[in-house]
Amino acid sequence: MLASIHSATLQGIVAAPVQVEVNSGESGDPRLVLVGLPDAAVKESEDRVHSALSNSGFAMPETRTTINLAPADIRKEGPLYDLPIALGILLSTGQLTPVLNPADYLVAGELGLSGITRPIRGALAIAQLARKLGKTGLLLPPRSAEEAALVEGIAVYRVESLDQAHRFLSGTLALAPLRGDRHFLRKSDSALSGDFSEIKGQHALRRAVEVAVAGNHNLLMIGPPGSGKSMIAKRIPTIMPEPTLDESLEILSIHSAAGRTISGEAPWCERPFRSPHHTISDVGLLGGGTMPGPGEISLAHHGVLFLDELPEFKRSALEVLRQPLEDGEVTISRSAGKVTLPCAFMLTAAMNPCPCGYLGDPQHECRCSPIQIQRYRSRISGPLLDRIDIHIDAPTLSIRELRTESASESSVAMRERIQAARTRQHTRFAATRTTSNARMTHTQIRQFCRIDSTLGDLLQQAMEQLSLSARAYDRILKVTRTIADLAGSEHIEPPHLLEAIQYRSLDRKLFY
């Protein structure tokens, strides 16, 4: 007897439909034959399903049974097919007489040996697929169902076991669909780590960070050890505007596809902050694998990617950032397929001025030779540096600054100014797909960053003296527009341009 259950497979962060076909009663030795490009985890489902059926009071087929995961040309991975395979076996062997039409539901879930269900990756993407396909509902394990219920327009049912799913489809158990509870998508101050009021001194650096966040600009901090670079970077999410509902769902979708929502390590209410170690591989940073999945740059989508000790990262790993920084997305091609992943993140990087870290520090002597310094700094290519809008020094704090008892400005006050600047940008770009000044196109730069001849001459002089590229020219104008937004000015004034130019002054120090 042939039975069919509808399920899904993950391709990057989106789901594609999979039909689980089960045909029992075939001639031959009693065994399960699983086809349709399954990976090792899918192949092992036979043993999990066998135990789950037995411990739930059901019987395995006594004949040869073929299970096909269609379409057969797409590789299937993960344990999410356990539940649909088990239900397909029950249907094909007559142990399940459905009152509800199984074709109206999308089913996914891992089974424990006792028959309980366990959460799966990509529940949000599967719910979006079910809605797109016009399904009546979606059967998922409890934790995954709560996540999927955030998608409007689809009924999501939480099934805690194989037996419960069987009784629901057979009409002997009524389940109420979950209602999406979005309370955990709201930012909570208690969930944030630290506050800018804890930062001593570093007024110029704090200002540069505020400008960077206001326009979503990439930021590079250069200073000796102990100057507070990492401490400040970790507090950047506390001054970023709260993500919109759409942004929250995008963030959650990526982290769900990466499996972070299963382990509970993904924050529900914050913009992501990712800080990979400098030993990370190109694939770990960019994304990929046999079945392409999100890397660190995608996990930082709508948030912050912090690269501490920037020159210590492999050159190849840094160079793969160039295209994603420009486009806000990355396309990964593998033998199993090609996926495009979003990665609109704010790059925040920190580095020492030299190998020993004390070049220019009045309290310590630098022991590095000019050749060592040049070799150290040249690990960052000019094209990558061009894509970092703001470069700022982080000088060593004096003992007097460290001892001060007066609190600095809080994250809340900084966030209010940043939110006002972001609101001006949203109004300006309301009719376009641009979301911030840092994402302005060349045409938008010419439209919204107009400068008169006097300011143009000033900018040309700075470009020539610092030997900046054409890309750096646009970066300066973008930062200038953000500074003007923070000042509440519709027009770019000389102080705005001068401040933006000083944020590129490190180009000459690093490379010329």
From TrEMBL:
<dbReference type="InterPro" id="IPR000523">
    <property type="entry name" value="Mg_chelatse_chII-like_cat_dom"/>
</dbReference>
<dbReference type="InterPro" id="IPR025158">
    <property type="entry name" value="Mg_chelat-rel_C"/>
</dbReference>
<dbReference type="Pfam" id="PF01078">
    <property type="entry name" value="Mg_chelatase"/>
</dbReference>
<dbReference type="InterPro" id="IPR027417">
    <property type="entry name" value="P-loop_NTPase"/>
</dbReference>
<dbReference type="InterPro" id="IPR014721">
    <property type="entry name" value="Ribsml_uS5_D2-typ_fold_subgr"/>
</dbReference>
<protein>
    <submittedName>
        <fullName>Magnesium chelatase</fullName>
    </submittedName>
</protein>
<dbReference type="InterPro" id="IPR045006">
    <property type="entry name" value="CHLI-like"/>
</dbReference>
<dbReference type="InterPro" id="IPR004482">
    <property type="entry name" value="Mg_chelat-rel"/>
</dbReference>
<feature type="domain" description="Mg chelatase-related protein C-terminal">
    <location>
        <begin position="409"/>
        <end position="504"/>
    </location>
</feature>
<dbReference type="Pfam" id="PF13541">
    <property type="entry name" value="ChlI"/>
</dbReference>
<dbReference type="InterPro" id="IPR020568">
    <property type="entry name" value="Ribosomal_Su5_D2-typ_SF"/>
</dbReference>
<dbReference type="GO" id="GO:0005524">
    <property type="term" value="F:ATP binding"/>
</dbReference>
<dbReference type="Pfam" id="PF13335">
    <property type="entry name" value="Mg_chelatase_C"/>
</dbReference>
<feature type="domain" description="Magnesium chelatase ChlI-like catalytic">
    <location>
        <begin position="195"/>
        <end position="400"/>
    </location>
</feature>
